[in-house]
Amino acid sequence: MANRTPLFDAHVKAGAKMVDFHGWDMPLNYGSQIEEHNAVRKDSGVFDVSHMTIVDVAGAEAKAFLRKMLANDVAKLSVPGKAQYSSMLNDKGGVIDDLIVYYFSDESYRLVVNSATRERDVAWIQEVASKFDVTITEQTELGMVALQGPKAAEKLRLVIGDEAFAEVDGMRPFMSAQVGDLFIATTGYTGEAGYEIVLPASAIEKMWDDLLNVGVQPCGLGARDTLRLEAGMNLYGQDMDESITPLEANMGWSVAFEPEDRDFIGREALEKQKAEGHDKLVGLVMREKGVLRHGQKVVVDGGEGVITSGTFSPTLGFSIAMARVPNSVGETAEVEMRKKFVTVSVVKPSFVRNGKGLV
Amino acid sequence: MSSIPKELKYASTHEWVRNEGDGVFTVGISEHAQDLLGDMVFVELPEVGDTVAAGDDVAVAESVKAASDIYAPIGGEIIAINEDLEDAPETVNSDPYGDGWLFKIKADDPSEVEGLLDAEGYQAVIDED
C-alpha cells in the first residue's frame, strides 16, 4: 500500500483526486488545478508537503560535514534560522538531490530533501556522515504544509494569532523561526511570498482545517507543478538527476566554488566541466496555440536538446518550458510537436514572479 | 462516478454523439474523458466544410496534463464547430454534454451511428480501463 501523509483523510474530505506520487498517495487536484494555481498567484493556497523528507544534522562536526557534502557553502550562513538552496552531488558532479538547508548553529542544521529520492538521500547522507562526528535524525513524526500567495501572511496571522505571528512578521525570504510547535520558514516552490510550516503530524490536520476555514484554497500536485515551472524552479527527476550536474541545470548559482580550498563532493568534476563547456537549461516560450511537453526534441544553433519540463502557463496564457540545450543556443529554437516543427523563443528559465509575468 | 447520459451514443475513444435529426449529429467528449485529461487549455477543432471518415483524428483536446486526439465517431461533413471554446476551453470540463460540445457532423450514412456504443456499453469500456 502507498504511503499516506497525516492529511490523507482531509484530502479525501476536500474532494481531492488522489494519485500515486513516488509511492505516496497525494492529491493531484481538488477539482480544477488552474483555479488552484490562480488562487496562489492572487490570494493564497495551501499544499500538503508532508511527503518531503526532513533530516536534522547535529554534532561538533555538523558544519564540516555539510561543507563536504553540499555544493553550496553553509559557511555563508551565520544568522540562526537562515535558509539556503543547495544540492548533494556524486563524485561525477551529478545531482543526487536538491534541498534546502536551515542553519541554527554551527552544530545544528535541518535539511529538507525530496520524497521521491528519500531512500537514496538518507543512505547517502549516512554514508558521508559516517566520517564525521555528527548525528543524523530523520524526522518522521513531523508533517509539513506550504502556505503560499500574496495573502499568505494575512491568513497565517488569522490562524495562529497576533502574538505568534509577531515572531515571523516581516521575516525576509529564506528565513525561519521556531514558534512554539511550529517551524515557520519563508520558503516555497511557487514564486510567491509564503511559508513552509513544519509541525507535529498530530497537529497538522487542525492547521489544515483552520487554513481552509479562513479561505485558503487547498492545492494539489498539478498546481504545484505549473507554479514551480512558471517560477523557473527545477523538479528533481525531470529537470535534473544523477546524470546531470548543477551547471547543466541552471543551478550554477547554488554551487560555491569559493573558497577554493573547500573540497566538496563533486567539485573536481564540476571544475573540469566548467573548463570544457557544457549544456545549459534555458526557458522556452511559445505564444501560439499548443503546449510544450516534457521529452519533446528541441533543435537550436549548434545542435539538439530536449524539453525537461513543459506546460501551459495559467498566469501567462501560453505555453512555457525548460529545455536542456547546447550552450551555442541562440534566441530561438525549433520544437518538434505533433509531427511538425514550431519556432519558440529562448529566454531565461524564469517566467513569473510575485504574480507578474517576466516574459 | 461520472455521468453517462442514456440518450447518447459513444465511441470507445470517449466521444459522445447526439442525434439532432435530419442526419445531423453533435459530437463531444465524455465526462470521464474530460476528467482524465484535467483542465482544458486549448481545443483545436476541424474546419466547417471538412469531410471526415469515422475514426479520423479531427480535433485535439489539449489539457494542462496532455494533448489528446479526438476522432470522428462517424463519417460525414463538418457543418458547425463550437467557436466559444476558443476563449473558454474549460467549458469542456464544466459542461461536457452541453455547452462543451465540439462539432456537428452531417452524416453520410446515419445508420453508422447504430454501430456505436450505448451508455451501458460505454460504461463497460470505462470499467475495463
UniProtKB/TrEMBL annotation, chain A:
<dbReference type="InterPro" id="IPR029043">
    <property type="entry name" value="GcvT/YgfZ_C"/>
</dbReference>
<dbReference type="InterPro" id="IPR006222">
    <property type="entry name" value="GCVT_N"/>
</dbReference>
<dbReference type="InterPro" id="IPR028896">
    <property type="entry name" value="GcvT/YgfZ/DmdA"/>
</dbReference>
<protein>
    <recommendedName>
        <fullName>Aminomethyltransferase</fullName>
        <ecNumber>2.1.2.10</ecNumber>
    </recommendedName>
</protein>
<dbReference type="GO" id="GO:0008483">
    <property type="term" value="F:transaminase activity"/>
</dbReference>
<keyword id="KW-0808">Transferase</keyword>
<dbReference type="GO" id="GO:0019464">
    <property type="term" value="P:glycine decarboxylation via glycine cleavage system"/>
</dbReference>
<dbReference type="InterPro" id="IPR027266">
    <property type="entry name" value="TrmE/GcvT-like"/>
</dbReference>
<feature type="domain" description="Aminomethyltransferase C-terminal">
    <location>
        <begin position="280"/>
        <end position="352"/>
    </location>
</feature>
<dbReference type="Pfam" id="PF08669">
    <property type="entry name" value="GCV_T_C"/>
</dbReference>
<feature type="domain" description="GCVT N-terminal">
    <location>
        <begin position="7"/>
        <end position="257"/>
    </location>
</feature>
<dbReference type="Pfam" id="PF01571">
    <property type="entry name" value="GCV_T"/>
</dbReference>
<comment type="similarity">
    <text>Belongs to the GcvT family.</text>
</comment>
<dbReference type="GO" id="GO:0005960">
    <property type="term" value="C:glycine cleavage complex"/>
</dbReference>
<dbReference type="InterPro" id="IPR013977">
    <property type="entry name" value="GcvT_C"/>
</dbReference>
<dbReference type="GO" id="GO:0005829">
    <property type="term" value="C:cytosol"/>
</dbReference>
<dbReference type="InterPro" id="IPR006223">
    <property type="entry name" value="GcvT"/>
</dbReference>
<comment type="function">
    <text>The glycine cleavage system catalyzes the degradation of glycine.</text>
</comment>
<comment type="subunit">
    <text>The glycine cleavage system is composed of four proteins: P, T, L and H.</text>
</comment>
<feature type="binding site">
    <location>
        <position position="196"/>
    </location>
    <ligand>
        <name>substrate</name>
    </ligand>
</feature>
<dbReference type="InterPro" id="IPR022903">
    <property type="entry name" value="GcvT_bac"/>
</dbReference>
<keyword id="KW-0032">Aminotransferase</keyword>
From TrEMBL, chain B:
<dbReference type="Pfam" id="PF01597">
    <property type="entry name" value="GCV_H"/>
</dbReference>
<feature type="modified residue" description="N6-lipoyllysine">
    <location>
        <position position="65"/>
    </location>
</feature>
<dbReference type="GO" id="GO:0005829">
    <property type="term" value="C:cytosol"/>
</dbReference>
<dbReference type="InterPro" id="IPR003016">
    <property type="entry name" value="2-oxoA_DH_lipoyl-BS"/>
</dbReference>
<dbReference type="GO" id="GO:0005960">
    <property type="term" value="C:glycine cleavage complex"/>
</dbReference>
<dbReference type="InterPro" id="IPR033753">
    <property type="entry name" value="GCV_H/Fam206"/>
</dbReference>
<dbReference type="InterPro" id="IPR011053">
    <property type="entry name" value="Single_hybrid_motif"/>
</dbReference>
<keyword id="KW-0450">Lipoyl</keyword>
<dbReference type="InterPro" id="IPR017453">
    <property type="entry name" value="GCV_H_sub"/>
</dbReference>
<dbReference type="GO" id="GO:0019464">
    <property type="term" value="P:glycine decarboxylation via glycine cleavage system"/>
</dbReference>
<dbReference type="GO" id="GO:0009249">
    <property type="term" value="P:protein lipoylation"/>
</dbReference>
<protein>
    <recommendedName>
        <fullName>Glycine cleavage system H protein</fullName>
    </recommendedName>
</protein>
<comment type="similarity">
    <text>Belongs to the GcvH family.</text>
</comment>
<dbReference type="InterPro" id="IPR002930">
    <property type="entry name" value="GCV_H"/>
</dbReference>
<feature type="domain" description="Lipoyl-binding">
    <location>
        <begin position="24"/>
        <end position="106"/>
    </location>
</feature>
<dbReference type="InterPro" id="IPR000089">
    <property type="entry name" value="Biotin_lipoyl"/>
</dbReference>
<comment type="function">
    <text>The glycine cleavage system catalyzes the degradation of glycine. The H protein shuttles the methylamine group of glycine from the P protein to the T protein.</text>
</comment>
<comment type="subunit">
    <text>The glycine cleavage system is composed of four proteins: P, T, L and H.</text>
</comment>
